[in-house]
Amino acid sequence: MASYNTNTSYAIQPLLEKLSSEDSDYRFMSLSDLHSILSNKTVALANDSTTTINRIVDGVLKSLSDNNAEVQNLAVKCLAPLTARINDTQLTNVLNRLSSFSISDTDGSLGSTALRTIITNVPATNAVGKIFVGRLLHTLLPNLRNSTDSVDVLVDLVNRFGSSLTYEQVGETQNALIGVLETGKGLVRKRAVGALGALSNHLTPQLWDNMMTYLIDSFNQGVPRDRLRILVSVCGTLCKANSVRLSPYLLPLTGSVLKSLDVEDDDVRESALITLDTFEGSCPTEMAAFTGDIITVGSRFIKYDPNYAAVDEDEEEMEDADDEKNDDSELDDEFDDEDAFSDEDDVSWRLRRCAAKLLDTLIETRPDLLSQLYTSIAPLLVSRFKEREETVRVEVLNTFATLIRQTASTNAVAAAANTTRRKRRMSDDSMILESDPRRQLPDLSGRVFKLLSQNLLKMSSLPSKQASLTVATETVAVLPSLPDEFSLFIPTIEPAMSQGTLRTSIIHFVSILVTNHSLEQLAEYLPTIVSVVVAGADDKFYKISSEALAAAGDVIVLITTPSNVDTSKYIVQLHETVVAKATASEADLEVRERAIMAIGQLLIYARNTLSKTEMDADADILLERLKNETTRPATIRSIENIAASPSTDASVFVKKWVNEVVIELAGLLRKSNRAIRASALSALKVMTEKFASQIDGATATGIVSVLRGVIVEDDLQFLGPALSVLTTLVTTLGPLPADITDTVVDLVPKLTTPITTEPLLDLFSALARAGKAASLVTALLDEGSLISPTGAKALAVVIVRGGLVDDRVTQIKAEAGRTDNDSAARSALMVLGEIAKLLGSELPKDLLSLEFLFQQFSATSSEVRVAAAQTLGAIAASNVDIYVPVIISQLTPESSNAKMLVVALKEVIVFNSTSKARALALAPYTADLWTQLFALDLGASSRTTGGEKGSIKAIAAECIGRLTTLDPSTFITELQTLLRSSDVGTRSIIISAVRFLFSQNDASAALADEAASADELLRPVVIDFLALLEDSDLENRRLAISAIASVAHSKPNLLADHLSRVLGLLFQDTFIRPELIREVQMGPFKHKVDDGLDVRKAAYDSLYAVLVAFAQLRKADLQLDVMTERAIAGLDDDHDVKITSCVILGKIAETDASVVATRLDMLAKKFTDVLSLKLKETAIKQEVEKHGELQRRAIRTSQQIQAAFAAAEKSGDAASASPEMSPAWAKYLTETVRTKSAISQ
After folding, report:
1. b/e per residue 374-401 (b: at least 16 CB within 10 A)
2. N or C: which end of the chain has fewer CB within 10 A?
3. pTM to 2 decimal places
4. Which of 15-19, 585-589, 659-663 has the lowest mean pLDDT?
5. Which one, of 38, 35, 62, lies nearest residue 49 by Cα?
């Protein structure tokens, strides 16, 4: 390639001169060098760049007429980088000359290719789009009927610059394409169908209606066969391009397409089947009315084979097992001599293939019809396993595999339903009907395996064998038991292992087979199964060997199951193979890792078959592999599996091996590799638990030394498991050294999360039982950590588990009664409460008197009062019959201790909601508690009286909600009545209580039956609750709207039936209400206060929660267009609303990019305003931080929108417009986002 300098004019000049050379090689090389210069973006043109580019344009365009094809092709290639260098005037010149060239060219293909190259590579701006549309459209449209190249250019033009088309241009283009459909010929009409699909995204509603009317009228009037095929194809193309807009017209169009199947023309029928497949896949809900027709059509044409009259005889022969066994020669002819039935003019196989695809789509989209499909379609599919045409046979097998996969999904749903029914004490067997797929598939399975065995034995085609194995794998994964005919299939897999492309599929089949069936069912097939696995493990290709060793682990689990079947020889055979691979240094790492995992399975399950010497040798292999850096991760996992398995016999492993492994694992905690440290600590935890009795003192000392470093790091990921290991060592070997104990005590004030506090408390409990209670109490008191809840819990655990209650409670009680030190009194009360929780009903009656606690209710510090109330609740929680009646009697509206008593009740209710037995203990008092809570003055007065009564209301609302969960059938009805109360305050507290009910997640509920019952009873409450979204009181409305977010997050099923109403009410509250904006005088300044702002914030938050909850399941019901408009409006609201609006827009883009695509111009303006806003120099720190947060969120949302467009384009979603269609958005991304992102980074 020629060299060139920075001043490219001097480099380009000789190249342009050589373009006129008589030697084609010179012309070619000149264009090649020119292409290199133009493609190098770092090379700038000279000062006279306009003149230079004009000369380049002339040279390249002239080369398009070269008599050498290679020169012409290279000239087209040069147009791609050239388009980035030319201005609009030059572009217009290029387009004019190329348009003329494409018309004058003999075949037009070169000119059209050049035009398509420019269209694809030119920058997509509005100005460029207008140039292209204005210059090309009037040239292309007259030539559409005679040139496929013109149609191809038009398709690219519409895809790239469709948004630049005016209404008149779109209509003109549509009419021209319809004209091609009517009068065009051959391939031109076929290309015009694709052009209409591209244009459909830019049709106005009126033009779309015109298109639909044209199609419907054309079908009704009757057209020739060739036009009928094209019209049917147009329907499918339009549905694929824009199924939402087509769905209202689907009823008449589908009827017409179905009628076209009666035409005696296979091409028309093929188009009709393809279109029906598109309809079913894109609009399954609308196509539900035609399900019967789809089944009939698919069943009719999947066996359509007019040139092969023996179809019916074959079906009868398939059902007769004896005839099949005695007619091998006929089968050989059928499968091996397929050419005997071939006919070059026979295209009926295309109809059968399309019918199979149609049925496949129906099965995918209508799993609710599975039972019906098993009756009407499944037997037919099985009969077509012997299809003579390869591509059709593969499609039939894939369709049946889809049916089996849907059956597996149904089984999973049924299993979940059975679990629910068991909770309700119902028998699941009685619920399985004769029409259930779980009973229908076994009836077919015998014929399935019989024909699959013939496919594997008789056919030479690899695709058919691969598809047959897929069907077999899916079937054995679902079948509860294997049919007798399975014995015909299993022998065929071992010979099939000779074909390398099938080995992975065969091994996967074996793995699924042994995982889903018992040893008794598979006993007779074990020789073949083990032989396949061993052959796969010895394969030279590492992927196959690795998969086989993974399957070996599954086989080991199967054959070591206790039974009367003698499997010892198979265990020995697998053991030899696995050990050989694990110790082979030349084997691939993945193979050795899988072998190591298999050795772990042998050590767990094969202890009764392998000798002691073999077990020890296998264990030593793991120890050796643990010390090897490359195989260490897999070995750690294998050792962890051994220690964690309930089937592992700890006595099998020698003490020396256990200690060496534990020390090695502990040593890995000093490594810098975080993943290795995490897995080593996890394995160390289960190893110390499983083999605690075999760990000696020296090993324990080494472990403690290492763990001290882990604890000091304060890494929460490692801290919990490290403390658990220490707990195990203390329980087994006794107290830890003093220095590690001090280190653990130092952790107390730092830990607050349950994931770390629970292991810490377990360790303190173990230490206290080991005789360290007294020293720990002293250390904890000296630490001064009792001001934290964790410190109080730790001290209580040590006192109770160490037997120091009698010795220490008096001292702590004295501290609790101090009036000169509120902090000490609060801490002491917290410890007493935790002691009461631990002792439960064993708490001595004279340990803490009610009089003492009531005295603390009068303390000056609110923290002391609350601590006393929580202590009272802790005592009463385990002694309900003694203390709860007293609390009820004291809880009166006149009581000065009302708030503290409500706090105590909350502790009681929370504690007794954790189990069925505790709930029953509290049940006799729930009605009285309910009455007393509502007897308090929590009505309207509490809305205006701050302080004590306001806080009582919040706690009481939670108590009411929790009481409702204990007895939903009694209290939900009362809540529903109170929701209609005329008192504002009463409605407020009921809203808070219902919101608590909505926020309770069923998965974490201890009382599963009550939770399920509460959900059912809450359904009618939702209707009354939605009325509160229009409450006249703004605070109540805000609370009700916030509750919608809670129910969307935790119980979306309760909202599903009311989604339209909920969204309407939420949209209503996103508008700014001028009547709620008031002006407040603040000194010499006037300040505007928006009383409706909190309601709007809650509405936007709830909109986002609803969007997240229903984005996948109910996207069509989310009114995304309206939601997008309100989110865009929110960008002009308060800061918090702006942030939420950005989050909503990002989620909408991920859900349906096409909704956002139509509003890119508006979004570009809004986001530009946000990112371009500059604060005043006097802005305070909080304003600067909020401004920065908003800008970052706007950039992140812009990136989400772009990512959504990219994902839609990748998935082929033509309905999601490209961001390039909006020049304003493209400019915003280029000029604003890129700059701001760089500044942000």
Report:
1. bebbbbbbbbbbbbbbebbbbbbbbbbb
2. C
3. 0.73
4. 15-19
5. 38
